[in-house]
Specification:
With about 260 residues, this protein is an alpha/beta fold. It is built from eleven helices and nine strands. It has helices at about 5-10, 15-20, 25-40, 55-65, 75-80, 120-130, 150-155, 160-175, 195-200, 220-225, 230-240, and strands at about 45-50, 65-70, 85-90, 105-110, 135-145, 175-180, 185-190, 205-210, 255-260. This is Methyltransferase domain-containing protein.
């Protein structure tokens, strides 16, 4: 991803470290974990976690027995991830992966596509992931859904602010989300455009999974996530409808998965 001064300044505030570890964003974390555990080949296997932040997913992957190398363009993230037992971390760009061809079993892009506003850059990142995985290997990419900002701002009350409302509707129209106060753009996908980007990168037959469904907007979702028994019910409920086409765009995030053509 292009690391602008604004993007670096935002992530150097260390906001990303706790985002998926607390509050309602845990739903995104546990659903991502759920889909990946059903999709990855059994450990031991080598996983390249591109744009892996401070290692929130690398940590559980290592615990599950995977060999994980994390790449991220933010020095603070790499420093944090390097402190995790079993995780190798270094600086890297999703569009130019510093690994040999067909050298890993899976490539995870659980953040880079958010910050690649140009379609050509997103396809390039996916093509690099395809190059890096072995035939039959898995490529998984997370995207933010086109109307996520409108949903989120209504939920939090920020929609009442004119600048926030205008930014949310601009993202819904053209995909470019420029959050007031951040100074850098993010790209929000229409769920129907994601398979085309995968296909153009040489990854046909992509499968899409809505991560949070509508549950991320529920007022009491934290209470469900805090209670292990109710959390299991919530995750089961979303799993039952995770790939229903008419519901994909309700989720805040989409996880799309494809395999590199060829026999493993």
């Amino acid at each position: 991803m292009t690391v602008t001064r604004e993007l670096l300044a935002y992530y150097e505030q260390d906001r990303e470290h706790g985002r998926l570890r607390e509050g309602r964003d845990r739903l995104e974390f546990w659903r991502t974990q759920d889909v990946l555990r059903r999709s990855l080949r059994p450990a031991p296997a080598r996983v390249l976690d591109v744009g892996g932040g401070t290692g929130v997913h690398a940590e559980w992957l290592v615990a599950d027995g995977y060999e994980v190398e994390l790449l991220d363009p933010v020095p603070l993230h790499v420093e944090r991830a390097s402190e995790l037992a079993g995780v190798t971390a270094r600086l890297g760009d999703a569009r130019e992966l510093p690994v040999p061809d067909a050298s890993v079993d899976a490539v995870l892009l659980l953040g880079p596509l958010y910050h690649l506003a140009e379609r050509s850059d997103r396809v390039r990142a996916l093509a690099e992931a395809r190059r890096a995985v072995r035939p039959g290997g898995l490529v998984a990419a997370a995207t933010i859904n086109r109307y996520a900002a409108v949903h989120h701002m209504v939920h939090t009350g920020a929609y009442a602010e004119e600048r926030q409302r205008e930014a949310a509707h601009a993202a819904a129209k053209n995909g470019i989300m420029l959050s007031p106060g951040r100074g850098f753009p993010a790209y929000f996908h229409d769920p129907d455009e994601v398979p085309g980007e995968f296909a153009d990168a040489g990854l046909p037959a992509a499968e899409r999974y809505g991560l949070e469904g509508a549950f991320w907007l529920y007022g009491d979702v934290d209470e469900w996530l805090d209670d292990p028994e109710r959390r299991t019910l919530l995750l089961d409920a979303q799993r039952s409808m995770e790939s229903v086409p008419s519901l994909l765009g309700v989720s805040g995030h989409l996880l799309t998965i494809a395999r590199r053509p060829g026999a493993p």
